[in-house]
Structures are given as C-alpha cells and as structure tokens.
Amino acid sequence: MRLRAALAAMAMACALVPARAAVPPPLDCERVDTKTAASLPADRAPRIVLLQGSLGIVTMAPFGEFLEGMGYPAAALVDPRTGEMTTDSDLDGRTLAGMLAWQYERDGVRPLIVGHSKGGGVVIDTLRALAGVYGNELALVDPRTLEPQARTQFLDPVTGESRRVVDLTLPLASAIATGRLPRILRGQFELASVLRDIPDSTEWFVGFAIPYDPIAGTFAGDEDPYRATGRAQVRNVVLPATTNHIGVPRAAHLARDPATRAWIDAYHPGAARAMPEGADTTNLVHAAELWYSIKRAWCGEAQRANGQGQRAG
Q1: What is the pTM of this model?
Q2: pLDDT in tens, the chain (313 residues)
Q3: Which residues contact 235 (CB under 8 A, 6 or more apart)?
Q4: Rounded to an integer, what distance in angstroms lies between the CA atom of residue 122 and that of residue 299?
Q5: Of 78, 160, 170, the residue nearest 124 (C-alpha)
Q6: CB under 8 Å to 277, separation ≥6 — which residues?
Q7: Class for domain 33-301, per CATH?
C-alpha cells in the first residue's frame, strides 16, 4: 500500500514539472532562404555603412534601397549623421574604425562596411586601422557628429568586457570596383601597395572587379585579386565586362522585379545559374552576391545574441 502511494506521489510530482522547451537548432547561415531572412530579428541586423565613390554622380543610396526592398531593416542602412542611405567617403580608416566600435557598443551588433570605388579604399584603410596598423589606441568616434571621444576602449555588450577599438572584428566587409591606379593618383602610395591585402579584422570579405575598367585601372579583372593575410575568408568576384563603374550602385530595380528578386533569393556563391529572361539584369551579380553575404552576417549576429555563435569581437 505504501509503495503504491509513493509511486502515485512521484507520478503526480512529475506531472507538475513543466516540460523543458525544446531548443531550436541553430540556423544554417550558409543557406538563408527568403523565409528565414524574413524571420531574422530586425534588432540584430548589423548597421551597414555604405561608402559612396568620389564622383558623387551616383551615391550608394540606390543600393540601400535595393537592400530595403529585399527586406533589410531601413534603420540599419541610414547614416546616423545625415539620415541618408549613403556615407561620404571623405573619411580615413581610423575615424571609421572608431565609429564602428561606437556603434557596436551601442547596439551589440557588429557593423558591416561596403564601399564603392573610393569608398572601397576607405574599407581597406579601415580594416588596416582595426588590425592595429595605425597603433593600438584609436579613439571611439560618435558617428552622429564625427567627434572623437576621450576614450579608446568600449564595453563589449555581448561579453561585458572592456575592449579596445582595435579588438573589434567585423563579420563582413566588401569593396566594389576599387583599383590601385586612383590611389596612386591621389598620392595614397602606401594604401595602393596593400590595397588587396585583407587582414583578420574582418571574418568575411568580398571584392568585386570590373574587366577593362578605366576608372579603377583594371584590365582583365582577375589579374589583381584580394588575398587574406591571415584567417579571413576572401572571395573575389569578376563582374560582367558590361558593368558600368559609375552605375554599380543602381540596384533598386532588382528588388522590385519578381524574376530578378527570385534569382537573387536563390543565389549561392559558386552555383552556376542562367540569368532570368526578359528582365533588366543590370548589376544583378554583385547585388546577389552581397545580399547572400549580408544575410549570412545577419544570421550570424542573431545567433551570437542567442549564444549559439562564436563570441568573436
């Protein structure tokens, strides 16, 4: 009788214990489809600094509009100083490095940087600054005012540790149609000599070249590839020879057309697919490549917040 009562009591106690919620498996950030991208939290979308070229005829705003059209949160695309989806490339790498650290401390999401033409040179200079080329005591910079702060360390919102600006590692950086010749003409001889060297201050880098681009000073397009100096994953993409250097940021139309949008959503690096017929495919390749890489970074930052990814700086 006593044994039966004890067993009944144990059964009742077990019934009162709430079932442990199943932990969902981590997402495969290498293959983020349309549905998965739509479910990623907006507050974990990395701030994307879209650095425009020097001519000013076309800013990076049309590319920002493309990203917004694909479902990326508009708030993460806007320059906090100007309110525009583009950032002037009259910045040096140390300033932008300080801005990125300030942004990370504020929202706990590591930012991304994408630069077109001259803006791509700023991307490389920033990666060098984060790698410590200009010293280990860089100041944080308020991106709303471009004012340097009186400190060189920030509180990591993920780990709770005090860290230097040069300890920050970006999840993604990219340079589009950025050549050595313009750097030489501007007297940036040191930057020109290391323009294709990608340090460990970014985890993933995508470099785009246009064949026979007179503005960037490239010829075949693949003769001067980017290369990692350490562990960074580097991907070189040669764009179609018909790509217009100045018009590269014009991609907003690709998100509006169902055919090109579907092609972009299904894109995966290295997979050969026929271009959609009867659609304007101008700038389709680099738009798809960058959307894939940005979704990948967004997914990774969402997992870092949940403790599923690496707590990389």
Answers
A1: 0.88
A2: 454 554 455 445 444 444 443 444 567 787 777 677 778 889 999 999 999 998 777 899 999 999 999 999 999 999 999 999 999 999 999 999 999 999 999 999 999 999 999 999 999 999 999 999 999 999 999 999 999 999 999 999 988 999 999 999 999 999 999 988 778 877 888 888 888 999 999 999 999 999 999 988 888 888 899 999 999 999 999 999 999 999 999 999 999 999 999 999 999 998 878 899 999 999 999 999 999 999 999 999 998 767 654 434 5
A3: 204, 205, 206, 207, 269, 289
A4: 26
A5: 170
A6: 259
A7: alpha beta
